[in-house]
Amino acid sequence: MVHFVGAGPGAPDLITLRGKKLLEEADVIIYAGSLVNPALLSYAKESCEIYDSSRLNLEEVIEITKKADSDSKTIVRLHTGDPCLYGAIREQMDELDKLKIAYDVTPGVSSFCGAAAALNMEYTLPGITQSVIITRIDGRTPVPESEKVEELSKHGATMVFFLSAGDAEGLKRRLIDSGVTGDTPCGVVYKATWEDEDKLTCKLSELPERMAEHGIKKTALIIVGNAVAQSGYEKSRLYAADFTTGYRKGTDAKED
Ligand code: SAH
Q1: pLDDT for 149-201, tens place per residue?
Q2: If you take atom 13 of ligand 1, which residue's CA is the nearest one?
Q3: What is the pLDDT of residues 87-106, one digit of tens each?
Q4: Measured in angstroms, how far is the CA atom of residue 245 from the centroid of ligand 1?
Q5: Which residue is closest in CA terms to ligand 1's atom 21?
Q6: Does residue 206 sit within a domain?
Q7: Residues lining ligand 1, CB < 6 A?
Q8: Which structural domain range is residue 63 located in?
Q9: In this structure, what CATH number is given to the domain that contains residue 118?
Q10: 123 and 79 fall within a common domain
Q11: Which residues contact 189 (CB under 8 A, 6 or more apart)?
Q12: N or C: which end of the chain has fewer CB within 10 A?
């Protein structure tokens, strides 16, 4: 049995209780060493075999998994954040399907949630935007034409850029060329929830310089959009005094 587990964004106490239990019980852990906090490995039992997948290719990961499974061992495949985002889990699941090895998934706190927490930020402010776009700029993995920054930025939603910190200059240029104004607020969080977390907020026009000042080139999220300013929004109707909900009678409620 293989358990895909979301490790959370970094802090070892941000894994789920279920994820921690699976780590404690695992005979084999294959973890994404480039981004998973190694402190999480202290939850493993002494006899657990531990592999860093940043040094392995897909075939090697599957080979280790296959061998462990044939010895009836329990395997945890530990991915950073939540495995459903840029986790390359589908290709592993397809190989496991071919081998008839069972698996399940335990979600984790994605880094885009860790980054919002670091900035005390609500991404979906009424009156500003009600949507979050999770995306990236092209790298080794191309982005489909209809999802280019130039297209997505038209929505005015909060945009969270993964895997893009290495080209802040390109990101800024492309956003500005597509009509996003230079004074649009941005947030950058490096290693959200880790001990060496760093963060900044700035205008889009100064994004590359501010990131360079902080020496941020990777392991960071860039958040762009008017919601980043966390001002000028409308209060939610949910908690408005005059608003009646299924749970609470508002001041405008008619007596029955
Ligand atoms: N599945 C992961 C994302 C993996 S892709 C998740 O849900 O968070 C790797 C990218 O995620 C990095 O390049 C970076 O952009 C982002 N990332 C991962 N952990 C991060 C963290 N703690 N702080 C900021 N960005 C992080």
Answers
A1: 999 999 999 999 999 999 999 999 999 999 999 999 999 999 999 999 999 99
A2: 163
A3: 999 999 999 999 999 999 99
A4: 37
A5: 191
A6: yes
A7: 9-10, 35, 79-82, 85-87, 110-111, 114-115, 162-163, 189, 191-194, 219-221
A8: 2-109
A9: 3.30.950.10
A10: no
A11: 111, 114, 115, 118, 119, 197, 198, 199, 220, 221, 223
A12: C
